[in-house]
C-alpha cells in the first residue's frame, strides 16, 4: 500500500513543480517561496483549530494535530532549516534553468537517499527493487547529455550546482522524515503543520534582510495564482508521502525513487506549457524512469 501512496505523492509533486515553474518565472524567488508555504499553512490551520476546540471530531476524521513536547518541536525545526535551505537553492535554480533539466536533477535525490538508507536504516531491497532503483538513477544521468544541447554546461553553470546542493539537502530531509514519522511517531498532519509554521518564521527572517528593505525588489514581485497552488499541492503530496512512511515496511530509498515518477508530468506537460526544447529526446530517459518504478511496484 505504501508504494501506491508514494505514487499519489508523485502525482501532486508533478503538478506542484509545474505551478512552481510558473510562479518563479521572471519573479522574486523569496516572496514566492514565503507565499507558497503560507498557503500550505493556511490550509492546515483549520485542522489545528479543530484539534484544539473539537479534538474528538478531529480524531474521528483522522486529522488530529497532537500536542508535542518542546524537544520534538526542536526536531521539526531542524527539518525546517534543512528544507528552507533546499528550497531557496532550488527556487533560484528553477528561475534560471528549464524545468525539464531541473526536475531530472532533482530526481537524482534517490541516489543520496540510497546511501543514507543503507548506512542509517540498514534497508535491503530485493533483486527486482535493486534493478528498478539503478535503472531510475541511470535514466536520470542521461538527462545531463540532453541538457548540454540546450546550452547548459553542467560543470560551469552555478545554477546546476545550486540544484545539486538543493537535491542533497532534500534527500537528507527525506531520511530525516523516516526518523520523525516512525521513531517519534508523528502523524503526517502534526509534522506538516509545525513544519510550515517554523519554515515561515525562517523565511520571514531571510526576507527581512534580503527583500523587505529593498523597494525595487518589492516592486518586482508579481502575484500569481500558482503561488498558493504550489503550497496546497505540496501539502497534499507530503500528506500521502508521510502516510506511506507510517508503514513500518516502507523502504525510504524505494519510496524516494517512486516519487520521481513525477517527472512524467514535468517533461510532458512542462515541455508543452513552457515551450522547452528536446522534449522527444527527454522521453528516452523518462521511459527508463517509468520502467524502474514499474519494476519496484511489480516486486
Number of domains: 1
Count the E strands: 0
Overall geometry: globular
Question: What can be said about the biggest beta sheet?
Answer: none
Please characterize this protein's 3D structure:
With 299 residues, the protein is mainly α. It has one domain. Helix content is 80%, strand content 0%. The protein contains 14 helices and no strands. Helix 7 runs antiparallel to helix 14 (279-298). The radius of gyration is 19 Å and the shape is globular. The relative contact order is 0.23.
What's the arrangement of secondary structure elements?
Elements: H1 2-24, H2 29-53, H3 55-60, H4 70-96, H5 99-106, H6 109-121, H7 127-148, H8 158-183, H9 188-210, H10 215-220, H11 226-245, H12 252-259, H13 263-273, H14 279-298
Helix pairs in contact: 1-11, 1-12, 1-13, 2-9, 2-11, 4-8, 4-9, 5-13, 6-8, 6-12, 7-14, 13-14
Keywords, separated by commas or semicolons:
single chain, 299 residues, mainly alpha, 14 helices, 80% helix, globular
Briefly, what is this?
This protein is mainly α and 299 residues long.
